[in-house]
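Task: complex structure prediction.
Instruction: return structure tokens for all chains below.
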Amino acid sequence: MDCRDFRENHFAFVDDTLSGIELVPMARHIAECEQCAKHDAAVRRALLLFRNLPPIEPSPNFRARLEERLLEAKKMDSAPAHRSRQFAAGVAIASVVMLGYIGTSLRSVDTPRDIILPPVVATKPEAEVLPIATPSASLVASVPAGGSMWTAAMYAEDAPIHFASADLRLINTTR
Amino acid sequence: MANIARKHAGQSQGATVREQLRAMDDSGVVTAFLGGEERAFSELVDRYQTRLLNFVYRTIGDREKAEDLVQEVFIRVYRHLHRFDRSKKFSTWAYTIASNLAKNELRNRSRNPLVLLQAVQKSWQEDDRPLQFEDPTSRPDDMYRKRHLREAVEASVAKLPEHHRNVFILRELEGKSYEEIAEITECNLGTVKSRLNRARNSFAEIVAPYLE
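Output:
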């Protein structure tokens, strides 16, 4: 056994929890290695000191304070049960009220009623004055009435110049 | 006359119950409490108050706070005893609660430096007090030496890392088995053994100068 193995198993050596087979090499090592023997003695001495520290006792009013705190705890434990009963009753009442409201709302939806709309004020637009002075009867008959466009095209040459624009002139392409 | 006789009979019956409870093991006392015997809780407090107080005090190093925490342990035990798994040891359960509370306290202190400062100031004030823990029949120099050594040992324990200290105290002060420590600290057995070994070595190193 080397020092590392000894240190690793030292806690069990101190606690006397090693089996006989494990104990023999530990005891042999401690007899041979001065360093590990010193370490073993230092640990045992330190532990002895710690184990002999005087224990502290609870203060005289410890029990009285504990009794008080226990009483408080008992009160707190019983309070939530009471509160939860109140809460359950509240929820039940609210549910009944809500169901009643929904019932009455549904009944009012089923009955048909006339729809009354607010009065609407309408105005008659004024007639727009068009720049056309005196269109021929055929043009009036074809274009504004929604007739076929070809009729209008046939009579285009007959339309007065100012119908489209004052600057436009008809060009004779045959010339 | 009849009233006095009835009262006397009641008292003797109460004393008998207490004696019976004292003779029981923890498991029996717990069963009695769960069966409606309120005095059984008092018996549990009697059995564990000093042990738990020493364990928590050595872990956190503040006596007043340790008392508060031990009271909290008993309140939790009272509230949750009906949920306690009776196939396990009551002491392990009680120490687990105490260990967790002590751990939380140390965590809170590290988060709140003011609390730590107050604890340190309290220990300074304790230094100013007259020597009250030593045997008054001892010689003054002996008393001083003993007190100095006790403080050195307590300071050395306090220097151990929290998770080492916990295992160390449970083993050295409370005499818990490795398995019980593993259960209390919620660690595996290997971790407990390794922590215990390291804690012992560190403690021996820290305290060595005071022993020379």
